[in-house]
């Protein structure tokens, strides 16, 4: 048994309480251990990726209980890719949080950060539907703490909404799981797949209800249109480095949709055939449209980037909802791109917010305006999907994959129009932020009030930024986007292999249930 | 008994949803707790209702047994919802103390522009 598979869950689970109990008053030690843990997670993710790359599916049986009875962790190409993506993103975010001093504006940032990683990585690795719920809760409860990190009235009020909305989502998740269990008598994903395929078609109304409820839950996580209301207020009011980490959280919803609706309720299963794609595709198109209008209408930089995150989820879910191997490969490529892009823009937004506040009104020039303007320009190109960065490649792949669909014209029209609206919105924001201040005829505009930093009055919690370090992760994320563009060929080969593995779930099921050649 | 349990789940859910749609955080939190009770009862019932039966297989005699897995699931769900309720109470309380207002909406300027 390959013990590396459980390492990404155990390591943060050990480091987080260690940080709380042993070094709660040692700011520098916390930083050292947190970064060390994330670096170690990166190495573990590389090991996992190299073992999954050749298409091997490895199973880790917790407590050595065999599959349908015990809880299992499963490592396949998709899980390995998502784990790698999470750890790379986490490294950038933790470095930025240290560099900007955000980790010292409240207590326990690093411990919550580790718990958050534990939940996300666990959700990617688990092979059991109830265990997926548990890891969702782990990542949510850590995210509640991170969301209100640093305090402030607006952030706390946004936090209440975020928590209430997600508690509702959790209740719905449990109802969906209960429904699935009552019909099939199992919650192991591979076993569920076997049982669902065996059920007679006329006897499955309850199962279809369960499948749709489950889709609703994941759609809440992925911020699909009718259920996206929580995202702009939460992400825009969270500390920006935390919002950058949350870029992976909406991908957890997309991952769960991809996993459950290729493995359990796959395209070949008669009872739920076409059920998901039919509903998900229009919702995803609307999500993309709503997100781009949000970008155009935002009066605040943080909200603008949050709507940008919604558009990227829209594009991603369009590709997922086609449920063909080609579209899924494109979706996975776009998932990597959009995670890095959203995180990059949130970090740049934080650089701007720290210097002049987030309101999109002309103000006097801020410090380092030229450098930040360049960074914003690169981030905006990536977000809008313009050449030469990977957003262009990603959107091209998604549109190419949509050619086989019967709704190809709707998809193309929405993607192209929203790209234009996104460019408009981003250039409007960029010119207000970076060009208007240099307009000599403009009367000086008073700096908007920052009402957030109530916690800063506590001398123990005074922010302690590390000069210069804040720019390193920003450049690193840009480098990652460039690398993703240059290495698009190898990355696409990997995602195509991943999609092929997802759409041939018999390997997964046989490996998990240990029934060779059945 | 099925009628009793089903109507209990239904009434709890209905009351929970009604309370969640209220404007102040306190009724919303009560509504979330009611909803989590409803979910717990529902999960418990997914293993089918059985009276006075052990949750253990007997390999020597063919005696009836009740499904132990939903009981374990409910236990997990209870612990999680209890912890979550504590968290949401704390966040709502600090939000109330900080804003001097326990409305759940952010209709004031804080919601749009902050």
- Roughly what percent helix of chain A? over 70%
Number of strands of chain B: 0
CATH class of chain B: Mainly Alpha
* Helix-strand sequence of chain A: HHEEHHHHHHHHHHHHHHHHH
Count of helices of chain B? 4
Transmembrane segments (chain B): 6-21, 28-51, 71-97
Organism (chain B): Antarcticimicrobium sediminis
Membrane topology (chain B): Multi-pass membrane protein
Subcellular location (chain B): Cell membrane
Characterise the protein shown here:
- Chain A: This is Monovalent cation/H+ antiporter subunit D.
- Chain A: Residues 128-421 form the NADH:quinone oxidoreductase/Mrp antiporter transmembrane domain.
- The complex is a heterodimer of chains A (518) and B (114).
- Chain A has 518 residues and is an all-alpha fold.
- Chain A is globular and about 75 Å long.
- Chain A has helices spanning 7-22, 27-52, 77-100, 109-125, 129-147, 153-184, 189-198, 205-222, 230-237, 240-263, 275-297, 301-321, 325-356, 369-384, 390-401, 408-435, 471-486, 488-502, 506-513; strands spanning 58-61, 72-75.
- Chain A is 70% helix and 2% strand.
- Chain A has 19 helices and two strands.
- Chain B is mostly helical and 114 residues long.
- Chain B has one domain: Helix Hairpins (Orthogonal Bundle), CATH 1.10.287.
- In chain B, 67% of the residues lie in helices and 0% in strands.
- Chain B starts with a helix and ends with a helix.
